[in-house]
Structure formats: structure tokens, C-alpha cells
Specification:
The structure is a homodimer. Chain A is mostly helical. The first copy, chain A, has one domain: Farnesyl Diphosphate Synthase (Orthogonal Bundle), CATH 1.10.600. In chain A, about 75% of the residues lie in helices and about 0% in strands. Chain A has 15 helices and two strands. A two-stranded antiparallel ribbon of chain A has the order 1-2. In chain A, helix 4 runs antiparallel to helix 9 and helix 9 crosses helix 10. Chain A is globular. In chain A, about 55% of the residues are buried. Chains A and B meet through helix 2, helix 6, helix 7, helix 8 and helix 9 of A and helix 2, helix 6, helix 7, helix 8 and helix 9 of B.
């Protein structure tokens, strides 16, 4: 294992812990904001949905992108945790019976299974709302212009033109007779790509980066978003439920078109490696400062779960 | 009809039209932001959920509160429309089978009836996300500090400690053996009160009002929020489905505790009038400038639907 790889593995763990602890504090703060009564069942469901572990890849990307521009650790942790709340809320809603109808997530019961559907819908809503409460905090950045830029970034990438729109296209694709390569790429760029890109851009925004540097991070995010999804689709076929902590081969089972079903397994693996090479080239101007992000790109392609 | 009352009725209509048109433009803009593909079914569901008419009381309060501080009309319309998106998304989610399970809203099929559950969940999510995209726009206010203050206000009043928390308490109250006056007041202050208060405060924030003036608008919003809910509970008993455009007497039918069931009908009507008097006193320092807001308070208490 190279020095960078060892460092990456260690940082992936420590950033996940930082995000977990930041989320615990943020949820506690949010509770204090409640008038008189504290809807404790809702709080519990929000904790269940957001403190369930996981790789925390999106917040990792926020923190490491921010590090390139010497952003303060607390600011990066807050922006990272806000982004993770978007990811967590989306999992809660996507798992609902009316959507993907999943019982298991990271080896644990999904929120509507652990609680009930109404609580899961509201926990998702509350997590999404919390995102913007976090971004509005002065602790996230001293300059209100920067905070507003993050609000815009997160809202646009999470909404109709991003993640939620992509989830809608995904649901529609399930009942379509067929889906072509471009439709799959668009769907994935919105459903999973948007948040990964936003994670990388967030660091540049926090660090008041130049337009060029921000564009580089955007591009890097775009490429690894594609690589991440491709790796996911490959794992959906090659891995098993125990390793993934969730149902696998379910896309194939639903007859759902993925890039792997179009390209074939081997060509998909080759394509994933190409994307990794592109990602590395994109970050070259940052030199050594980007070594951990490059390891993160490698990880998204080569991970086993 | 007094001059103020005539003017109020006319403004209620024209502000509703302004908000409707602003929402149409905002939804069109949001669509342009989509990458390549436009999830048209989701767009349609968002339009169905947000352009269904209604009194538009909350945005009316934003616009009229803002007028006291001579805020530009476009800024007030944007902040008002953003708040209305929160209200509309909450109706979509609250109507879902897992929650209040309503088929009818303003005389039309609810979003999950007109489309399907998954689309309704996503349309709600996308509307909530759009709120913050709107608030982040420079057109909403030139000063990013003001926009961030609105982000904070809306997020805190819509989330765990406000509207969503109140909806959770409401669902829990349905299965409780009994609920006392304080519990009902808290629940209502969160579920419906929070957004009405936020509407009134938003005008003060947009207008860079003094701390005292903002506190007055907060207080006014708090009182009319209570009055609004009390009037709603009275109407639930005295009105019929045709007038209300939705199912009535359903709270009583569910054996759900309301203030009317605690106080009795006559005492509730007296209490609503007391609240109106308090609301009027709160706005006295603004003199003639607050005459329309006072008519709005009268309307919330005396409305027939």
C-alpha cells in the first residue's frame, strides 16, 4: 500500500468520525431550537437515518476539496455534514415502499421499517430542511456571500435539476421498455452525480477558489461521479448482499438498464479505469495537495463495497 | 364594507395572482437549470401542487409585512413565493396515504391521486429544495446577509422545531388517549403557527427593520397563527365540504382533540375575537401603514372557508 493510500484509508475513517460527531451536535442543536415540546420520535428517526455509519464519501470529498484551499476544519465539517444530510434524507425517501421499497440499508432496517412510513417521510423532510439551517450558520463561513453560494449549490444539485429529478427519471426508466446510453448517463449524472460534484465544488466555494480551480473541482467531481456509479453497477453484479449490506443484483433483477448491461462487465471495468485516469489528470495543477483526492478517486473505482 | 376591507379583498386577489405568476416563472427557471433531460412528470406534479390556487394567505402576509418597510415588490414576491412553496410541499406530503390520507385538496385530486405516491413524495422534496434556490437568488435581496437571514428563518420554522415537528406531534396526538390545552397550543404553534409567524417576520427582515419592529411582526404572526388555527377548528365543525373544498369534521370524526372540543364552540369564538383584538394592538405603532395587515387578521378570524 502506497503512503497516499495508507493516509487516505486513515483519513476516510477519521473524517467519517468527524462528520458523525458534527451531525450529532447539529441534531442536538436543532432539538434545542424546538419550541417547548421536542418531537422525540422524529429526532430518533433523524438519528437513525443520519448516524447509521457508511463510507461518508460525499462529506469526505467536501473536506478534502476544502483542504486544498486551506479552509478551516470546522467550516469544512459543517458544509460536509450538511451535504451528508441531503444524501441521508434521499436514502430515507428512496427506500419508501412507494419508491424502491427497501427493507435493509447498511445492514440495518430502513427508517420506515424501524419506525413507520409517516415518520420516515417527515424525518427525510426535516433532514433536508436542516441542511439549509446548517448552511445559514455563521460558523459555516464568516462571509454570507459564501454561505449563500453554498445554499444555491446544494439546492440546485439536490432538487428538480439534480438528485430529485434523477430519482424521478430512474423511477420512470423502470417502466420504460428500454433506455439508451445517453439517457442512463443523464439519469446518473443527476441522481448520484449531482451531489458528488457538489461535494467537490463546495470545497472550492468555501476556500474562495479562483473560477478555474472551482471548474477543476467541478470536472473532477463529474468524472468521479460517473466512476462511482459505474463501480456501483459493477458491484451490483459481482458482489453479494453480505458485502454490500444491502440487496444486490436488484437492478438486474428488475431488468433495469445500467451501463454495465449495455457495455458488458469487462468493458465497464476498462471504462471505470479510464475515468480514473481522467480524474487524476484534472487535478494535476494542484500537485501534491490533491494526492488524497486522487486516492479517493481510486477508491471509488476499486472499492469492494 | 369599510374602505380597508374593500382594499384588503382586492389585494388578497391581486397578491394571489402575483404569487401564482411568480411561481410559474420560478418553476420555468428551475426547469431550465435541469441538465439535458427535463423530468416532465415531476414538473407537472410540482405545478399541480403549487399552482392550485387557494387563498395564498402566507405569501400575502409576507408581501404586506414587507410593504410596511417599503420593500421592493419583486423582492417581496420572491420571498413570498418561496414561503408558499414550503406550504405547498407540506400539503403534498401531509395528504399522502401514510399521513392524513386525503383524496381532495381545494376541490381537486391531491398530488398522489393525480399522479402517484412516488411522484408526490418527490414533488414535495423538489418544492422544498426550490425554496432555498429562490432565497439564494440575488433578485430576492441585494444583501447576502439578508438572504441568509431568510434561509435561517424559513429553515428553522419549516423543520424539526417548526412545521415538520408539529406535523409529527399531530400524528402522535391521533393515537394518544387524550391531549391537553398546552399540548394542543404547542402542536398548533409548530404545525401551522410557525410558517405564519415566519411570513410576518420575513417582511421585517427584507425591510431591514429594527429589532423592535421585527419583534412586533413576530408577535403579530404568533397571534394570528393561533387565531387562524382556532378559526380552522371552528370551521371544521360549522362548515361543510362544499364550502371548504376539502373534507370537514374529520378532526372530530377521528376523535382528535382541538381547542374547540376543549373550550366549546361559543367560548372558542370569543377567544378568536380576543386574539384579533390583541393582534390589532400589536400593530398600533405602525399606524395607518398596518391597516391591511389588520384586515388580514380580521379575515383569518371571520372567514367562512
Amino acid at each position: 500500500m502506497s503512503k497516499s493510500e495508507t493516509e487516505f484509508k486513515s483519513l476516510l475513517k477519521s473524517h467519517a468520525t468527524l462528520v458523525e460527531n458534527t451531525l450529532i451536535d447539529l441534531l442536538d442543536d436543532a432539538r434545542v431550537g424546538c419550541e417547548i415540546e421536542r418531537p422525540s420520535r422524529l429526532m430518533k428517526a433523524m438519528r437513525h437515518s443520519s448516524l447509521a455509519g457508511g463510507k461518508r464519501l460525499r462529506p469526505f470529498l467536501v473536506i478534502e476539496s476544502a483542504k486544498i484551499f486551506a479552509v478551516k476544519s470546522q467550516q469544512a465539517a459543517l458544509a460536509a455534514s450538511a451535504l451528508e444530510c441531503i444524501h441521508c434524507y434521499s436514502l430515507v425517501h428512496d427506500d419508501l415502499p412507494a419508491m424502491d421499497d427497501d427493507d435493509l440499508r447498511r445492514g440495518k432496517p430502513t427508517t420506515h421499517k424501524a419506525f413507520d412510513e409517516a415518520t420516515a417521510i417527515l424525518a427525510g423532510d426535516a433532514l433536508l430542511t436542516l441542511v439549509f439551517d446548517i448552511l445559514a450558520k455563521q460558523e459555516t463561513h464568516n462571509d454570507a456571500n459564501t454561505r449563500i453560494e453554498l445554499v444555491k449549490l446544494y439546492a440546485q444539485n439536490a432538487g428538480l435539476g439534480g438528485m430529485v429529478g434523477g430519482q424521478m427519471l430512474d423511477l420512470e426508466a423502470e417502466v420504460k421498455p428500454s433506455i439508451n446510453e445517453q439517457e442512463i448517463l443523464t439519469l446518473q449524472a443527476m441522481k448520484t452525480g449531482a451531489l458528488i460534484r457538489a461535494a467537490c465544488e463546495a470545497g472550492a466555494i468555501l476556500g474562495n477558489a479562483s473560477k478555474e480551480d472551482r471548474a477543476r473541482l467541478f470536472e473532477f467531481g463529474k468524472i468521479i461521479g460517473q466512476a462511482f456509479q459505474l463501480a456501483d453497477d459493477i458491484l451490483d453484479i459481482t458482489s453479494d448482499a453480505q458485502t454490500m449490506g444491502k440487496q444486490t443484483a436488484k437492478d438486474a433483477g428488475k431488468g433495469k438498464g445500467t451501463l454495465v448491461s449495455l457495455y458488458g462487465l469487462e468493458a465497464s471495468q476498462t471504462r471505470a479505469k479510464e475515468l480514473l485516469d481522467q480524474a487524476i489528470v484534472t487535478l494535476e495543477p494542484f500537485g501534491e495537495k490533491a494526492s488524497i483526492l486522487i486516492e479517493a478517486a481510486r477508491f471509488t473505482v476499486e472499492r469492494k463495497n
